[in-house]
Amino acid sequence: MDSQEAEGTVNATIARRLVTDFLLPDGDEVIEVMPGEVASIVVTGRADWRVEPLREIGTTETSPGYRLFVAESAMTDVGDPEDGFAVLPDGRAFHLNDPAQLKAFHRRVGTGPLETAFLVASYVEPQPAPRFLVTGPDPEPPVLTGDGPTRVTLCTYTRRGEGERAYERWEVAVGEDVEWTRANL
């Protein structure tokens, strides 16, 4: 088995576990896991999930000490919300869409301010569609400030139909813990 096949097998095993532990409704079961070059497809009795490892979030590479995965429905077009997961080397996984788990993950791993803010803005709080991080000047790039907890201000948008975007401004305070607010622009 070459290293790419081994990586695919590891990713498929993690994908099965993430779907089973966090996304599978009661009474459903995993039928099959199909590893792929980019993502694994987890087939269940009621839904299929595409689970992919990511090496960066926003404009930042992920920190050492964890692996970032994203899961989305494999049965629909692009546009469904995504679930984010952080998986530690010991196998412990955190569902980043859950604010308490995202905070516990940050306390455990100590991700940097910009990376943490990108994780918050990408995954927490209910969302009708995927959020996209604004990393350029339209409407404004991320800004880091502060004494004490570092404050990161950044913008995201969701697509609301043909050519329409709904923008949000995030204020994320990153220190020993993480706090945030979100406002529509």
Task: Describe the protein in words.
By secondary structure, the chain is α+β, with helices and mostly antiparallel strands. The protein has 3 helices and 13 strands; from the N terminus they run αββββββββααβββββ. The strands form 3 sheets. Strands 1-2-3-6-7-8 form a 6-stranded antiparallel sheet, with helices on both faces. A hairpin with a 5-residue loop joins strand 11 and strand 12. The chain is globular, with a radius of gyration of 17 Å. 27% of the residues are buried.
Q: Which consecutive residue ranges, at least 5 long each, have pLDDT under 50?
A: 1-6
Q: What would you call the shape? A: globular
Numbering strands along the chain, what is their spatial order in the largest sheet? 1-2-3-6-7-8
The helix/strand order is HEEEEEEEEHHEEEEE
Strand content: 35-45%
Radius of gyration based on Cα positions: 17 Å
N- and C-termini, Cα separation: 51 Å
Please state the structural category: alpha+beta
Compute the number of strand runs.
13
Q: Main beta sheet, described?
A: 6 strands, antiparallel
Per-chain topology:
Layout: H1 3-23, E1 30-34, E2 40-44, E3 48-54, E4 56-57, E5 60-61, E6 67-73, E7 83-87, E8 93-95, H2 99-109, H3 113-123, E9 132-134, E10 143-145, E11 150-159, E12 165-174, E13 178-184
Antiparallel strand pairs: 1-2, 2-3, 3-6, 4-5, 6-7, 7-8, 9-11, 10-11, 11-12, 12-13
How would you summarize this macromolecular structure in one to three sentences?
This protein has 3 helices and 13 strands, in the order H-E-E-E-E-E-E-E-E-H-H-E-E-E-E-E.
